[in-house]
Amino acid sequence: MGITMPDSIRILIVDDHAVVRKGLAMVLRLEPDLEVVGEAENGRVGLEAAKKLQPGIVLVDLIMPEMDGQEMALALRKSNPKIKIMMLTGTEVDDRVFDLVAAGIEGYVLKNVEPAELVRAIHAVAHGEAYLHPDVMKKIVSRMQPQHTPTITLTPRELEVLEWMASPNTYKQIAAQLSVSEETVRSHAKNILEKMKQPNRAQAVLAAMKMRLIKLNG
Amino acid sequence: MGITMPDSIRILIVDDHAVVRKGLAMVLRLEPDLEVVGEAENGRVGLEAAKKLQPGIVLVDLIMPEMDGQEMALALRKSNPKIKIMMLTGTEVDDRVFDLVAAGIEGYVLKNVEPAELVRAIHAVAHGEAYLHPDVMKKIVSRMQPQHTPTITLTPRELEVLEWMASPNTYKQIAAQLSVSEETVRSHAKNILEKMKQPNRAQAVLAAMKMRLIKLNG
DNA sequence: GCGCCACTCCCCCGCGCGGGGGAGAAAAAT
DNA sequence: ATTTTTCTCCCCCGCGCGGGGGAGTGGCGC
Questions:
Q1: What is the pLDDT of residue B218?
Q2: What's residue A144's pLDDT?
Q3: CATH superfamily for domain B9-144
Q4: Which nucleotides of chain D have an atom under 7 angstroms from any protein CB?
Q5: Residue A13 in 3-state DSSP?
Q6: What is the pLDDT at residue A148?
Q7: What is the pTM of this model?
Q8: Within 13 A of B74's CA, how many CA atoms are on the CB side?
C-alpha cells in the first residue's frame, strides 16, 4: 500500500472518463513494478498533479475537456522534461501526432491495445525507449518518405554546389573548395535558383531541405 | 515441400554469411506460415533473385560485399516497391537508418533479436505495418526532438522577424508586413545574426531550424 | 529616480549575390 | 556524326544585405 518499491515505475493517469482511469489503474496495479500514484480528469489538473507527484511517466488521453492531452503534453514537456509522456488515444491516429512526437512524446498507443502490450510499452518508455504504435510509426515513416515528388533534376555538380550553398561559405570560398573559378560556382548557383524557382540562396536551401535533397547536418 | 500455402509469407534472405542464412532459414521454417523461397549472398544477386522470385518480403543484411544492403534496398524499392524490405544488421545502429527509413524500408531489426521477435516483426511488416527496432525508433524520434539546446534568448519581436527571414521576402517587404520601417527590420536582423553568431540570413534560418526555433512549414 | 532593455528609426559603406548576357570544351545522348 | 547536356569561365549591372556607427521612446525593475 504505502510501501514504495525502490525501483517501481510511478504512473499518473490523466483521462476524463473515470471508468477508463479505474480500469487502467486496475490493470496496471497487477504488475508488481508499476505503481499508479495519481489520477486526473483533465489536462489542467493533470499538469498540477504531475508537478506535485513527480511521476516517472504519465498516461494522457488525447481528447479531454478544459485542457486536452496535446496542450498538457506540451506544457509538461516544457516544465518537467524528465517526466515521460505516453499518449493514449482512441482508435484513430490524427495529424497531431507529428507535433506530439516532435515535442518529444515518448509513447503513443491506441486504447484498444492488449494490457500486456500497454505494460510492455510502459516499461519500454520508462527505460528510455520510444514506443509508438505501428500506425503512428507508419504515419511518421510515410511522412519521412520522399513524397513521390516532382523532383527537379539537378545535375550531380549542381547538387554538389547546392550542398555547399547550405554552408556558411561565400561563393568565392566554395569555388576555392571545389577548385574552380568563382564564376563557375555563381553560374551553377544561377542555374540552381532558376531550376528550383527560388529567389535567393536562403530559399533554395530551405526548399532543398523540404524536398530532402540535402540533409540537416550529416 | 513444394507445396505453397495460399496465404503464406514468401521470404528471401540476403546475407553474405552462409551460416546466418541457414540459421535464419531454419528458424523461419519452423513457422507454418513462413516460406523461405530463396537465399542470396550479396545485394546484386539478391536484387536479381527478388525480381525473379517476387517474395513478399526480403531480409537484407546491411553489410555485404559487392553491393551492400543499403544499395540493394534503394534499388529494390525503386524497381519493386511492393516487396517489403526488412533490414537486418549487427548490433550498432548507424546513421544510414535515416536514408533507409526515408527510402521506405518497412523493417529494421538487430541480429541479436529473439527469433520470436523476428517472426513477429516479419508478420507485422507483411501485414503492412512498420517494424523498427526500439533503438532505431529512438534515433529517429530523437532526431525529430528539440535537442535540449542551449537556446539563444531572442526577444519576441526578434523571433517574429526571424520567422519572416525564412520567407522569400526582402527586408523591405518584411517591414511592410510588420508595418515598421525597413531600418527597423534590418536592425532586428542585425541583432539576430549577432545573437545567433551566424554570418548571414541563410545560415541564420538554417540554424533556427536546427534548434527548432522555426519549423519547416507549419 | 535611475538604469536596463526592447523597440523603433536613421546614416554610411562595401561586398555578396541575383539576373542578364555569352562562350568554349568535353561528355553523353541521339 | 550531329545534337544536346554538362561543366567551365567571363562581363556588367544593381540591389540586397552585413557591419559599423548613433539615437530617441516607453516599459520594467531596483
A1: 41
A2: 61
A3: Response regulator (3.40.50.2300)
A4: 5-11, 15-23
A5: strand
A6: 46
A7: 0.58
A8: 12
Domain ranges of chain A: 9-144, 156-210
Task: Name the grid cell of A18.
Answer: 473515470
Contact, A170 CB vs strand D, < 7 Å: no
Instruction: Give residue A78's pLDDT.
Output: 80
Closest by Cβ to B138, choosing from A102, A129, A165: A129
pLDDT of residue A134: 72
pLDDT in the model for residue A36: 94
**Alpha-carbon distance A140 to A129, whole Å?**
17
- β partners of residue B9: B34
Q: Can you give the distance from the CA of residue B198 to the C1' of nucleotide D16 in angstroms?
A: 17
Yes or no, beta carbons of A128 and B148 under 8 Å apart = no
Written as one letter, the residue type at A159 is L
User: How far is Cα B13 from Cα B15, in angstroms, rounded to an integer?
Assistant: 6
The residues that bridge with A9 in the sheet, in sequence order, are A34
A141·B124 Cβ contact <8 A: no
Average pLDDT over residues B120-143: 78
CA distance A161 to A186: 9
Q: Which fold has domain A156-210?
A: Arc Repressor Mutant, subunit A (1.10.10)
